[in-house]
Design goal:
Length: 162
């Protein structure tokens, strides 16, 4: 657990330092991530997509796992997929540094339930520019959590997706 927190903190700090020269008028990145969660939880893919910059990078699960989704067109497909599997996440803790928010979350969806697991725990690192999300590194699992570890063990045993 401490190692995972350390790695997430180092990554968030690196993003913060890399973004420092780009100091623009900032909105509240924690509030923006909360709006993201609320829109996704109500199944509003278009509402979530509107929160992203045109050239945003989403480096996360699903369709963006093999290679990050860059731009709104591929991101829209991933958000529609998330809505289709009834993604729902609850923010547990947030750490803000400048325009970067690192968030610990509880995550639920149909695939997680299919594995016989109620929820998984993970981390998101989100960078904003002004009032838009510009970068997301998402769903970094906390494998020290027993349910999360059980889910990823189940996932490992599944045949490859086609």
């Amino acid at each position: 657990m401490q190692m995972a927190f350390f790695l997430v903190t180092v990554l968030a700090s690196t993003l913060t330092l890399a973004a420092a020269p780009l100091a623009l008028a900032q909105s509240d990145p924690a509030a923006l991530l909360k709006q993201y969660a609320e829109a996704l939880n109500r199944g509003d893919a278009a509402g979530v997509l509107a929160m992203f910059a045109d050239d945003a990078v989403f480096d996360g699960p699903g369709l963006c796992a093999a290679a990050p989704c860059v731009g709104k067109a591929p991101l829209q497909k991933e958000l529609e997929r998330q809505v289709a599997v009834k993604e729902h996440f609850t923010i547990l803790k947030q750490y803000v540094s400048g325009n970067v928010v690192t968030s610990r979350f509880e995550f639920r969806n149909d695939t997680i339930m299919k594995a016989g697991v109620e929820r998984i725990i993970g981390w998101w690192i989100v960078e904003t520019q002004g009032d838009k999300i510009s970068y997301v590194r998402g769903a970094i699992p906390d494998r020290s959590d027993p349910e999360t570890a059980r889910f990823f063990e189940w996932l490992r045993t599944q045949p490859p997706a086609r």
